[in-house]
Design goal:
By secondary structure, the chain is of the alpha+beta class. It is 18% helix and 35% strand.
């Protein structure tokens, strides 16, 4: 955990030197905006000092209760207080509030759903990159494609072009590239035009495209106004298995036809 080096009055938790895990939101004089519980805290008194000479964050006790701030193994900050009557530590507040708010909790191409167990699942067409870790509830390795994209094939003259699977009511991944677009088909076409582009979303004449790993996808409830439809690029067999069946049927029909022709030619030769 560190103070924001950009000069914004907020706390950051960094997963790696350049990867943001969580932010507290700016200090408003009483609490950080994403941690409103701090403003009504009756156990600890928090203060944040920021000026040209120094920047620091402190807290001290307001009463005789014993309290502590800790960070657990998942990266969640918790304020605990000791209750004499039960002789136990009790949770006063925690941030991030849910596992799905933790940056990259489900890894690349994983989708988090706070209403299900386990919280993480792979997008259609993907599978756990390390199944052993998933069995131990460690999803950070994320998911990998079951079938490579057609655009990754050196010989792109064969096979069906890549398509999309749609995820409904999701929180979009982080770090998109956005531009104006008239229709969803135009947005999809732009995503298909470059193999490194892995997903897209369209809303109010705005197309957003993601490059590389998709991070922080989250299923939301139907009444969440921030929910969007998201299109993930996949290999066609994963999206349209019926096409494969149709191709197999054509091959079988051709094989039967060729066999029949060969048999007829052989009978004619014998007759002659």
């Amino acid at each position: 955990m560190e103070l924001d080096p950009k000069g914004i009055s907020q706390l950051l938790i960094m997963q790696e030197p350049d990867t943001l895990y969580w932010t507290s939101g700016p200090w408003d004089g009483h609490s950080f905006s994403f941690v409103p519980e701090m403003g009504s805290n009756y156990i600890l008194n928090f203060s944040y000092t920021y000026n040209q000479e120094e920047t620091y964050f402190t807290y001290n006790r307001q009463c005789n209760s014993t309290s502590r701030l800790v960070m657990d193994l998942s990266g969640q900050i918790q304020q605990l207080y000791w209750l004499e009557s039960t002789q136990q530590w009790n949770l006063l507040w925690s941030e991030p509030r849910t596992q799905c708010e933790v940056y990259a909790f489900c890894g690349a191409f994983g989708c988090c759903n706070q209403q299900t167990l386990p919280f993480c699942s792979c997008i259609q067409g993907f599978e756990p990159r390390s199944s052993g870790h998933w069995e131990l509830s460690d999803y950070t390795a994320g998911c990998a494609r079951k079938t490579p994209l057609q655009c990754e094939n050196n010989n792109q003259t064969t096979g069906e072009p890549d398509e999309f699977v749609m995820l409904s009511n999701v929180q979009l991944p982080v770090n998109p590239i956005s531009f104006e677009s008239r229709i969803i088909e135009e947005c999809k076409s732009a995503c298909l035009s470059n193999c490194s582009r892995t997903g897209c979303a369209f809303n109010d004449y705005n197309c957003s495209i993601w490059i590389g790993d998709l991070i922080n996808l989250q299923h939301l409830t139907d009444d969440d106004h921030s929910a969007r439809d998201f299109y993930v690029k996949v290999a066609t067999p994963m999206q349209s298995p019926k096409r494969n069946k149709r191709k197999l049927w054509i091959i079988v029909v051709l094989a039967i036809s060729l066999t029949a022709i060969s048999s007829a030619a052989f009978i004619w030769w014998m007759w002659v």
